[in-house]
């Protein structure tokens, strides 16, 4: 897949003019189911839940008003929840098309949850955007990016339901790891679509080959981010900066790390006051990476983050 700027306008809308209802409907009509949330996420999740965890439904994502399906949303929580332990939140699939964010969370639940359930309280939401998972999409059916809608009175049900779940389950959060990918389709499809939707020019940046992290500019925690990069470096390669010392237009603060203002941007990583927060960005389109390697990178990040939290609290 090309990592070059698009040479033709996005096929919906008029360049320079933001979309209206007709353009959003035309965009939605182009979307198709490509895989099954029930088969690839829900069934494996139910099979993976360990004995020391509770699986529960935290809401229904209902798009029947658009002629689409209803999706049950699931989370996994430590059964032995104790107020004297730190609390860890893991989220995946905010962008449904970012496969290892979902599958990496499922892998971590199956292989690592029980190893850590005696040291920390755990809440894992493995797939916030099931329609996006099924259609391999960044947006929800309303052409909204859930990862810009983590704010009061959110118009995206994916974001609003996740925030309500976290608020109900966790009086406080000490660590939040949000699992994402950066893919070539960010340049070939989703970036151009966003520019067309907003009536703006596409701000193109080369997709970096490798793993990187997005910290919070208000809570950068450089030593924490550095520890995670060191752990992931053992399983996949770390993205190098471009000729401007940047990754996707943002200056690197250290090897493999950039920072965003998560709260003001409405990002998932900004929805709590956690002391430590990071967003993973796996690169599944690398010619040297496999799906298994991408899933492992996600799982390794969560495990390394918990280790760092426990050491910091010691």
UniProtKB/TrEMBL annotation:
It comes from Scleromatobacter humisilvae. InterPro entries: AstE_AspA_cat, Peptidase_M14. It comes from the Bacteria. GO terms for biological process: proteolysis. GO terms for molecular function: hydrolase activity, acting on ester bonds; metallocarboxypeptidase activity; zinc ion binding. This is M14 family metallocarboxypeptidase. The keyword Metal-binding applies. Keywords: Hydrolase, Metal-binding, Zinc. It holds the Pfam family AstE_AspA_cat. Residues 33-314 form the Peptidase M14 domain. Belongs to the peptidase M14 family. Its cofactor is Zn(2+).
